[in-house]
Amino acid sequence: MLIFFHNALVSVFNKDGLDEIIKLLNKNNVKIISTGGTANFIRKLDIPVTEVETITNFPPLFGGRVKTLQPQIFGGILNRRDNIDDQKEKRQHKIEDIDLVIVDLYPFEETIAKGASENEIIEKIDIGGVALIRAAAKNFNNVVVIPSKHQYKKLSEILKKGAKTSLEERKKFAGNAFEVTSAYDSVIRRYFQNFKNPPSMSMMPFDTSMSKGIIDITQLRYGENPHQKGEFIGNLEESFTQLHGKELSYNNLIDTEAAIAIVYDFFSIWWHTRRQ
What is the set of domains in the chain, with CATH numbers? Predict the structure, then answer.
């Protein structure tokens, strides 16, 4: 089933490459809904934009922590176009469809890397962005989700060909979106697990980089037991250099992680002893 873009929600932290997408959306007569800094960016391109708060009737709350978490926005994304009850509720509450969601995530990993304070790091845990991406991906039958600037090229091609997508294309975008949110949550989880002495992101046993937008998956020799399957989420070759031996198994990586944790413990002891 082909769908056409009529309304797009655009809210991104990284504006690189966004100008071309916005111009193509405007050329295809797509209504653009946006927030804060992204809306200002779009206005500077002299392109019409609708602020989210004019739809939700709520200003950004709590220092920007709550902007898009409203039924008028999520209803527009999640309503099933072929469901009679959904459409009845949509009309009852005057909810407008959103067919395209272009959202990236706050740079949590980069904020840690630059040595930010705990408060700064916590504020870079994206809530609305992750929710929007997941909502759009869940409703891939009706919505296209673009969770990273690295999908702009494909989106640009679609917009140049009439702003319509196939179910297969939407499903692929959805899969990419869940990979992005999964990797993002993994970085946050590891930060809290190692809260007192968080390891370098480069030492984590998965590719935490959000810059690619899509993460790699490496099939392991086997899982926890020989009859089980195992996967490494990330680029294994970038994280480790295997000098010899068989292909790695899940247990090999667990042992490696334990070894790294022991090294951190010894380093911590050495560091505190050194300071005395």
Answer: 3-193 (3.40.50.1380), 220-275 (no CATH)
